[in-house]
Design goal:
Largest sheet: 8 strands, antiparallel, barrel
Oligomer: single chain
Structural class: alpha+beta
CATH architecture of one domain: Beta Barrel
Radius of gyration: 51 Å
Order of helices and strands: HHHHEEEEEEEEEEEE
Number of helices: 4
């Protein structure tokens, strides 16, 4: 029977305990959590007396310069010199002087703004035509170098050339003056496409032979198509000139015998120089040239017209070249802009 009264007694004590602790649990839930972090700034329980005073009014703040308040506050800074606003600024209307300024500018006492004059802008236009008929001539000096062909000096067991001895260019030709004629078109302000013919009057080479002796004179002709690029055709620009064509060279003896060198279809010349503009149509071009190529056929032409090969079956073609300097003048005719 004692066991039968124990559950009722337990429930009765539990209800009594719950009634006694309920208010304290409720109050504990409404309290803010206790901050264990020592680094967190704790709000003071009491405002210091120095800060408890009321915020000064704007008039008092203006009378006490040198103090600042919260920058996020919309009120003017405390104790800071604030310049007095004009009546126009305080009213929010634009200042009177700005309208008077434009009125004065529009008045007859002030000169009118300058008007665009088409004649003034003419000097800024390009004096070089975009398209024109382009022709000119140049005089210079040519210095040949390299080998005309290679003679086989020895053969291997299969009959192939094992050693080649070059025939120098200066054996048959030497340096001399040159004249060039150019004929083409300006396809843009900075580009020219043209055909050229260069003729060189070369000196005699140094080689001698028992039958013919030393050559009397020599000459060379270069025919090519070229493209020319100028960085600044208006005043002074850098010029790049590339030409590809064919060359013919011959050495002449006193009795009329000739050594002709032909069959050079891919002679290439590279020129570097300047483009000096003299006027709307004329320009000067000092240039430095470097050319390379090789002759595929070398033969003797006798005074009676008979032809004899100057090379043997085992000989090979070698590379020759020339260096030249030139001063040329060109004109743009029938130009359009």
């Amino acid at each position: 029977m004692i066991l039968g009264r124990e559950p009722i007694h337990f429930l009765r004590q539990s209800v009594t305990l719950l009634l006694l602790t309920a208010p304290q649990i409720t109050l504990a839930q409404n309290r803010p959590p206790h901050e264990e972090n020592d680094w967190t700034t704790k709000s003071p329980d009491k405002i210091p007396e120095g800060r408890a005073e009321a915020r000064p009014s704007p008039a008092e703040a203006e009378s006490r310069p040198g103090e600042f308040t919260d920058p996020w506050s919309e009120s003017p800074p405390d104790r800071l010199d604030v310049p007095a606003k004009s009546a126009a600024e305080s009213s929010g209307r634009p200042e009177r002087w700005s309208r008077d300024y434009w009125d004065d500018y529009d008045s007859p006492s002030h000169p009118a703004p300058p008007q665009f004059d088409e004649r003034r802008g003419r000097h800024t236009q390009s004096i070089v035509p975009d398209y024109s008929f382009w022709l000119g001539a140049g005089a210079g000096w040519t210095l040949p170098f390299g080998d005309l062909w290679g003679s086989c000096a020895g053969f291997d067991s299969f009959g192939r050339c094992a050693s080649v001895t070059g025939v120098p260019t200066h054996d048959y030709v030497a340096q001399g003056p040159a004249l060039e004629l150019d004929l083409g078109a300006r396809v843009a302000r900075n580009y020219n496409i043209y055909a050229l013919w260069e003729h060189s009057w070369l000196g005699a080479g140094s080689a001698t032979s028992a039958n013919r002796g030393q050559p009397d004179r020599a000459e060379s002709d270069f025919l090519a198509l070229a493209i020319r690029v100028s960085t600044d055709p208006e005043q002074l620009g850098f010029v790049l000139d590339i030409a590809v064509g064919t060359r013919r060279m011959r050495a002449v003896w006193a009795d009329g015998t000739e050594l002709q060198m032909t069959d050079a279809p891919f002679e290439t010349r590279l020129g570097l120089g300047a483009d000096v503009r003299l006027g709307e149509s004329w320009s000067l071009s000092p240039m430095l040239y470097l050319g390379l190529g090789s002759f595929g056929k070398v033969q003797w032409v006798n005074p009676d017209g008979t032809v004899q090969a100057a090379t043997l079956p085992g000989d090979v073609a070698l590379t020759h070249g020339w260096v030249g300097i030139q001063m040329a003048a060109h004109v743009d005719a029938f130009g359009t802009r």
